Amino acid sequence: MLAAADPLSARVFRRIGTLPAQTADAAMVATILGAPRPDVADALERLVDARLVESLEPQRYQVTTLTRLYAAELAASCCTPVSKQNAGPSDRQSA
Predict the structure, then answer these.
(1) With pLDDT > 70 as the criterion, what percentage of the chain qualifies?
(2) pLDDT at 5
(3) Is-contact 50 2, C-beta < 8 A?
(4) Torsion 83-87-88-89 (CA) sign
(5) CA distance 77 to 95
(6) Rg (the chain; Cα; Å)
């Protein structure tokens, strides 16, 4: 499972599923996540290697519609409304 093996790549994948556009660059994703751009760029390249995103040019990535929908579904299922912004892991709150 991607999340267990590579938490940053999993987080990046979930986040790009929630973006309105089908393309993104590493700097934009890094800014949204509040993570270092080199780390996000490396995570995006790992997603390219896993064939989850496509590299259009250096530091620019595209996600197919079906893959984007899957990533958005993962973001919705794992994240609370507050953490959906960053598509990070769920913050469980006790009732």
Answers:
(1) 78
(2) 77
(3) yes
(4) positive
(5) 19
(6) 12
25 within 8 A of 60, measured Cβ to Cβ: yes
Q: How far from the centroid of its chain's Cα atoms is residue 21's Cα?
A: 13
What's the pLDDT tens digit per position in 31-65? 999 999 999 999 999 999 999 999 998 889 999 99
Supply the pLDDT for residue 47.
95
Number of domains in the chain: 1
CA distances from 44 to 69, 78, 95 (A): 17, 20, 36
- Does some domain include residue 95? no
Q: In terms of pLDDT, which residue wins out, 93 or 51?
A: 51
Of 8, 63, 18, residue with least CA distance to 41:
8
Which CATH number fits the domain that encloses residue 36? Answer: 1.10.10.10
Is 87 within the bounds of a domain?
no
